[in-house]
Amino acid sequence: MNELAEINRRLPWPYFFHGQLQHLLLVLVLVPGGVALAEPGLTGGSWLGVGDRQWVYGLMAAVVIQQVLVWLVWRLQLCFGAFSRLLGRADLAVWMVIFFPFLVARVVMTIAVATSTPRTLEMPEGVAIALGTLLLVPAVYTIWSIFRYFGLVRAAGGDHFRARYWTIPLVNQGAFRYSGNAMYTFALLILWTIAVWAQSRAALALALFQHAYIWVHLYCTEAPDLEVLYGAATDAKD
Q1: Is 180 helix (H, G, I), strand (E, B) or coil?
Q2: By the 8 A CB rule, do 7 and 76 touch?
Q3: Exposure on the CB side of residue 199, measured as CA atoms within 13 A
């Protein structure tokens, strides 16, 4: 906690907004782009009494809200130690309770979009099953690797809350052997699997939207933060 307090003291407050103009501009492109790609696949269907268009807009809203929340919480913590000051040692636990339900909701809502807009892709059934299964394999392997080697705490941004994560070596086991960004490269393929199995154009558009947005998050928010955090760890060693 002392190391984080030192970062709070040294980091200039304008860093709070670092990369966020780019974040905003890219979202302003991704959201209408996602809607435009999904729109031809909307047929007026529904699931659980909710229309396909509502599921699409609800899912897009959940994705944007989650990534904006990640920016706010991570930068409030990095620049001001706000979560720790407010919640003490419960800070990380509270953040995980906020963070992970959004991930579950995004999968469930992708299923909802796919279920309410089935068979809107011209794809033979056998091809859809085979392609979806092919995409599912690296996704499941990566999710298993996150649980086995990486840990849910680190996946939620635990290094923004606890300095001990700065000294843990990079994970190079499981799916991380093939990509240092396996979570962003492979795990989200599960959303593509859902879309392909249902042959849903709208769900496929939303899978693409979510996959593109996670890379926006990486480059605009996470990568700069990791430079600050792990740069501090290097400075401490020196």
Answers
A1: coil
A2: no
A3: 13
Instruction: Determine which helix (DSSP H) or strand (DSSP E) holds 170, and give its type and residue range.
Output: none
Is 43 within 8 Å of 202 (Cβ atoms)?
no
Ramachandran region, residue 67 (left: φ > 0; alpha: ψ -120 to 50; beta: rest): alpha
- The Cα 85–Cα 132 span in angstroms is 46
Give dist(CA 125, CA 50) in Å, integer. 26
Tell me if 63 sits within 8 A of 209, measured CB to CB: yes
Cα–Cα distance measured from residue 17 to residue 21, given in angstroms and rounded to the nearest whole number: 8
> 158: exposed, middle or buried (C-beta count within 10 Å: 0-12, 13-18, 19+)?
middle
Question: Coil, helix or strand for 80?
Answer: helix
CA proximity to 192, closest of 183, 205, 182 = 205
Q: From the CB of residue 47, how many other CB atoms can be counted at a distance below 10 Å?
A: 18
pLDDT digits (tens, 9 = 90+) for 116-165: 999 999 899 999 999 999 999 999 999 999 999 999 999 999 999 998 88
Show the tokens assigned to 62: 């959940």
pLDDT digit string (tens) for 183-207? 999 999 999 999 999 999 999 999 9
Handedness of CA 44, 49, 52, 54 (dihedral sign): positive
Q: Which amino acid is at 97?
A: V
pTM of the predicted model as reported, rounded to 2 decimal places: 0.93
